[in-house]
Specification:
By secondary structure, the protein is an alpha+beta fold. It has two domains: 236 residues, Beta Polymerase, domain 2, CATH 3.30.460; 60 residues, no CATH class. The chain has a six-stranded mixed beta sheet. A hairpin with a 2-residue loop joins strand 3 and strand 4. Helix 6 runs antiparallel to helix 8. It is rod-shaped. The relative contact order is 0.09. The model has no long low-confidence stretch (mean pLDDT 80).
Length: 304
């Protein structure tokens, strides 16, 4: 499906799941070089920035949140830049690009500013807003981390380890998608300088700063999750140790009581205490004294 915005001779075409016929139509309309038309006809999965004559070609992976599976997936965005046009091609929905396209389509003032001269302003605006969207995604991840941190020290920790593991995978997928942007920017900056002029190079410096901020925030979230994961394991280990300790103490306390009861239950001719007045309570008293003695011993050894 091809969607178009055109003003003042400048054009942005967003192609979502383009058919072979639509790819051929774009190649003829914009006189795309054969390497570019072949690349945009299928997903590539290899981020890069290239120049083909008067055309710039970029492949950017973007982390997109899957609301059904509740984690980020990497989705490819192909960008072709000509002097008077911008092509964006993607075979899976990318919410940020679709929202940016829709905003420009409805905001006439913004459209007149971006479509004033050539396609460079559109590219810079789209790229910058896509990074803003990624920053908001990191804010959502941080809120999830904060909720886990609040719950990890509460009594109710059921299924928390699963949430931590899923969030660790989420931030890993996010980082894996965004990291190649650094390489693409390094390749694209000299190309942009010679093709789009010095003004866009200044914009690239701004984009690079936002990219570094995204990477630092993602690394911070990743480190926070690692600490929470280790903390959860330490708390669970301590809880398990306490449980084992309690059962061990119970076993140590019940063993001598069982031994005493067994001894007095032996059917012999001569049994001490058995047969005396109040013999039952005497035996119970002995058991109580043994228990208290063992508890005092455990306390002195700081086992309880």
């Amino acid at each position: 499906m091809l969607s178009r915005i055109e003003q003042g001779g400048v054009l942005w075409v967003d192609a979502y799941k383009p058919s072979p016929n639509e790819i051929s139509e774009l190649a003829r309309e914009f006189l795309l070089p054969r390497p570019i038309s072949e690349e945009i006809s299928r997903p590539s999965f290899h981020p890069r920035a290239e120049i083909h004559g008067k055309y710039l070609y970029l492949i950017l992976p973007l982390p997109v949140y899957d609301h059904n599976k509740e984690h980020h997936h990497s989705r490819e965005l192909d960008i072709v830049v000509g002097e008077k046009f911008l092509l964006t091609i993607h075979y899976e929905p990318i919410e940020s690009i679709q929202n940016i396209f829709g905003k420009i389509q409805t905001n006439l003032k913004l459209r007149s500013e971006l479509f004033e001269k050539d396609s460079s302003k559109i590219l810079f605006y789209m790229w910058g807003r896509a990074y803003d969207y990624l920053l908001s995604e990191l804010d959502h991840i941080q809120k999830k981390i904060d909720r886990i941190e609040d719950r990890i020290f509460s009594v109710e920790r059921k299924e928390l380890i699963e949430e931590i593991s899923l969030l660790r995978r989420d931030i890993l997928d996010f980082s894996r998608s965004i990291r190649p942007h650094g390489m693409v920017m390094e390749e694209f900056t000299p190309i942009a300088r010679s093709t789009l002029g010095p003004d866009f190079v200044g914009g690239m410096r701004e984009l690079t700063q936002i990219y570094r901020r995204i990477i630092l925030l993602a690394e911070n979230d990743k480190d926070s999750l690692e600490v929470l994961y280790d903390t959860y394991n330490a708390l669970q280990s301590r809880r398990s140790t306490e449980t084992v300790k309690i059962f061990t103490m119970l076993a140590l306390l019940t063993f001598p009581l069982s031994l005493i009861a067994t001894i007095f239950a032996i059917d012999t001719v001569s049994r001490p205490i058995v047969g005396l007045k109040h013999d039952f309570w005497i035996i119970i008293g002995i058991m109580v004294l043994v228990v208290f003695g063992m508890l005092i011993f455990f306390r002195s050894r700081k086992w309880i």
